[in-house]
Write a structure and sequence with these properties.
alpha+beta; about 290 residues; 4-stranded antiparallel sheet; globular; 3 domains
Length: about 290
């Protein structure tokens, strides 16, 4: 038991905590006049309804592209690590460069998107104004520079939370200090253990989608097996503590990941779907075994 705790502490020391955050302009505005009219028409109480108008089109515009860049960067970075219960993700030191490269590339793309927002904004406003009709006099459409400047991203990498040390507990009795230090270390280990639920949940969702496609899709593409393999590889890679519960789940998924060399027939699809559903049940059991 002592050896296991020591190994987990060594693993924890190889981790950092990464926080990815963004800001973006709101694409809607509260229309107080329309809200008041709706409340009066319904003979309702104050604040019983709120009406919002869309003041920024995102579909097919530079604004939408900026939003997409932020979302894709966030997903890519978060998939490199484990979600920390306190916020952010546990990231191995060896993966920091990869995360930083993803972020840097996204920042460059976002710079281009911001320039495109400024260049195309008059056309965007014209279309929004036309769609708003008489509402246009009741809401404020933000100007181009305000919209462009609101798109920001930030990646902060700091030391992960660690157990309290002797120096912090210097004013306490030895008994109290030892108990607090042990509790602190246990909580840090428990948080890291709980973080493994993230990729297990992702694997369960992938298995459910995989099974549904096998049973219900009119046409089955072998790319579905590629997606399953990719998620299984990620689960293996993110078993940072080497938890045996995750190893057992990975072992059950392994036969599915081999995949056929051809598109399976209807009967074969049913059999593979049943295997996937059994693996999904195993994922549920894994979360339960981890106390999550």
């Amino acid at each position: 038991m002592k050896t296991e705790e020591t190994n987990q502490m060594k693993v924890a020391q190889s981790l950092v905590l990464a926080n990815f955050s963004t800001t973006a302009p709101s694409t809607t505005r509260l229309n107080r006049s329309a809200s008041a009219r709706a409340i009066a028409a319904a003979n309702a109480g104050a604040n019983a309804a709120r009406t919002y108008n869309t003041v920024l089109n995102s579909k097919g515009t530079a604004v939408g592209r900026a939003i997409s860049i932020q979302q894709q960067a966030g997903v890519a970075i978060r998939r490199l690590g484990l979600p920390c219960p306190m916020g952010g993700i546990y990231l191995r030191v060896k993966d920091v460069t990869h995360a930083q490269n993803i972020f840097d590339d996204a920042v460059c793309e976002l710079d281009v998107a911001r320039e495109d927002i400024l260049a195309t904004y008059p056309d965007l406003v014209a279309k929004v104004t036309e769609r708003l009709g008489d509402f246009v006099s009741e809401v404020v459409i933000p100007n181009a520079s305000t919209v462009a400047s609101r798109f920001t991203m930030r990646l902060v990498i700091v030391n992960q939370p660690v157990a309290v040390n002797k120096g912090v507990l210097g004013g306490l009795t030895t008994e109290v200090a030892n108990r607090l230090r042990a509790d602190s270390q246990r909580q840090i280990t428990d948080m890291l253990r709980a973080a493994h639920a993230g990729p297990v949940e992702d694997m369960r969702r992938t298995l459910a989608e995989f099974s549904d496609r096998l049973r219900n899709a009119e046409r089955l593409h072998l790319s579905q097996f590629d997606k399953l393999r990719s998620e299984a590889k990620r689960l293996t890679n993110l078993n940072i503590l080497g938890l045996p519960e995750l190893d057992e789940l990975i072992e059950q998924i392994a036969p599915l990941c081999q995949g056929p060399a051809y598109v399976p027939s209807g009967t074969e699809r049913v059999g593979i779907a049943a295997q996937a559903e059994a693996a999904s049940k195993k994922a549920d059991d894994t979360l339960a075994a981890l106390g999550l």
